[in-house]
Write a structure and sequence with these properties.
Number of domains: 2
Structural class: alpha+beta
Helix content: 55-70%
Number of helices: 8
CATH topology of the largest domain: Glutathione S-transferase Yfyf (Class Pi), Chain A, domain 2
Largest sheet: 4 strands, mixed
Strand order of the largest sheet: 2-1-3-4
CATH class of the largest domain: Mainly Alpha
Low-confidence stretches: none
Strand content: 5-15%
Number of strands: 4
CATH architecture of the largest domain: Up-down Bundle
Distance between the termini: 49 Å
């Protein structure tokens, strides 16, 4: 079967799936979005237009968490990304949702606000997003105590979500000074070969990351 991933190297949710693919070891074709032909192909595959999209033997698979679970089921690698044990799998899925909903989402709100026209910016929304990030950092600091990886001893689904959300979260709301456990976890993530590869691939596009508005 042929796997094709439609993604962009700077996108946090694309990182999440790329990291899983690099961990999994399954061969795939990388169709980089931002190029007219790839953009048109993805628009036909997934009219909602949210990236990434994985195509498996002609069938589009959408939503980053579902894509990772699809890989585990249909293209298993040397190590599972979602534990086989039901209780451990629930813990992995919980942390995945925490990173996506309570770190990635507020981080994205802050970043997207930076690229709005000045008269369309939402300072109150940014204030709310920063408050949620602070709460999430504090909760994760306790949750990750004594753990090497987000959901326990093995790298998996939750860590794929954690890497981009914490990497970008630390850019918009740094946490090392107040949350050393979280900072140590981010350092372990960024040293892992699959994550380091995604970071390296994103580096040429880093100038596109929106800076704080004047």
């Amino acid at each position: 079967m042929t796997l094709t991933l439609y993604a962009h190297p700077l996108s946090s949710y694309c990182w999440k799936v790329l990291i899983a693919l690099y961990e999994n070891g399954a061969p795939f074709e990388y169709r980089q979005l931002g190029e007219a032909e790839a953009d048109a192909e993805m628009a036909r595959l997934w009219p909602i237009g949210k990236m990434p999209v994985l195509v498996d033997d002609g069938r589009p698979i959408v939503e980053s968490s579902i894509i990772i679970e699809h890989l585990d089921v249909h293209h298993p690698g040397a190590a599972r990304l979602v534990p086989a044990d039901p209780a451990a799998a629930l813990e992995a899925r919980l942390l995945d949702r925490v990173f996506d909903n309570y770190v990635m989402t507020p981080m994205s709100q802050i970043v997207f606000n930076r690229i709005r026209p000045a008269d369309k910016r939402d300072p109150f929304g940014v204030e709310q997003a920063r408050a949620l990030l602070a709460k999430s950092y504090a909760w994760l600091e306790g949750k990750l105590a004594g753990r090497d990886w987000a959901a326990g001893e093995s790298f998996g689904l939750a860590d794929c979500a954690a890497a981009p959300s914490l990497h970008y979260g630390n850019k918009v709301q740094p946490f090392a000074a107040d949350f050393p456990i979280l900072a140590g976890y981010l350092a372990r993530l960024e040293a892992r070969p699959s994550v380091a590869r995604a970071l390296e691939e994103a580096a040429p596009f880093s100038h596109m990351f929106p800076q704080e508005p004047a």
